[in-house]
Structure to design on (292 residues):
């Protein structure tokens, strides 16, 4: 792969997924795209670049999916789910007692472990949410991982990563060497393909947004743009949950951190961002890379 071809792929990935690769990540592209090129019957990455330049839509999708990260597991990092159980849901129950409904968005749903973990948290609350309408929207850039999430079928290795044994027994059915989450929990999740670089206003507003381990892949301007648009989709008293390595501090005033609650944020004025012009150089398209 020549320097020119690498620069083309860097720009291609940033434009189509938001992935911002540094100049020293050529090895990463080679390790992920060379097998894809061979599977497509191409001689190597130079021919793959030629095909991309010719506008092959199927190959564009395959390249983006091959380069995005789909690392996830049940109750990943634990702390956000403690916040969800101990802080977020109790406050939502009080604030939404009149309408008895809650909307949650997992903006990097990946293969489903995060949204299903949230669904299990809600089920464990039992009577507190009886009669409530619960919507969990899980989005991801990759259609392939969404299909796995919809099926809710996981290997023994996957269910052993972060999932308490009592929840495995309670919410999953074993078939051979795999485990499938029960139909009731699968029915709680709506899976939709979405690129965060694109408009997501059509999703409506949410009480809670989980957007974890996604923004670390974006440059600063793209992060700011996404934060400002997330602010328009969250209720004034809603909650934003970010990954441990992510923060709004120094990037935007649309959200503020909650003291002593790492990764948890509240909107300052979620409608204010609507009046702000897009930053120069930031496309009005925005990527959910998988989850992370």
């Amino acid at each position: 792969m020549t320097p020119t071809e690498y620069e083309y792929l860097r720009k291609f990935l940033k434009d189509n997924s938001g992935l911002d690769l540094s100049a020293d990540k050529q090895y990463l592209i080679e390790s992920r795209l060379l097998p894809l090129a061979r599977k497509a019957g191409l001689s190597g990455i130079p021919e793959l670049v030629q095909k991309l330049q010719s506008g092959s839509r199927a190959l564009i999708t395959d390249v983006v999916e091959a380069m995005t990260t789909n690392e996830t597991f049940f109750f990943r990092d634990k702390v956000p789910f403690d916040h969800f159980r101990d802080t977020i849901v109790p406050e939502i129950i009080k604030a939404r007692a009149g309408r008895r409904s809650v909307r949650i968005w997992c903006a990097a749903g990946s293969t489903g472990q995060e949204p299903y973990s949230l669904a299990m948290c809600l089920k464990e609350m039992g009577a507190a949410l009886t009669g409530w309408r619960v919507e969990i929207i899980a989005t991801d850039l990759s259609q392939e991982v969404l299909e796995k999430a919809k099926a809710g079928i996981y290997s023994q290795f996957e269910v052993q990563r972060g999932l308490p044994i009592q929840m495995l027994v309670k919410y999953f059915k074993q078939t051979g060497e795999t485990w499938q989450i029960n139909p009731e929990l699968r029915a709680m999740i709506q899976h939709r393909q979405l690129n965060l670089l694109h408009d997501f206003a059509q999703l409506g507003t949410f009480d809670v947004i989980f957007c974890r381990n996604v923004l670390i892949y974006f440059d600063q301007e793209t992060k700011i743009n996404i934060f400002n648009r997330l602010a328009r989709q969250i209720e004034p008293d809603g909650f934003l949950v970010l990954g441990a390595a992510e923060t709004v501090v120094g990037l935007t005033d649309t959200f503020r951190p909650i003291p002593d609650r790492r990764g948890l944020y509240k909107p300052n004025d979620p409608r204010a961002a609507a009046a702000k012009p897009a930053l120069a150089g930031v496309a009005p398209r925005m990527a959910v890379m998988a989850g992370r």
Summary: The beta strands are 101-106, 133-140, 153-155, 172-175, 178-181, 189-193, 206-211, 234-242, 255-257, 264-267. The radius of gyration is 20 Å.
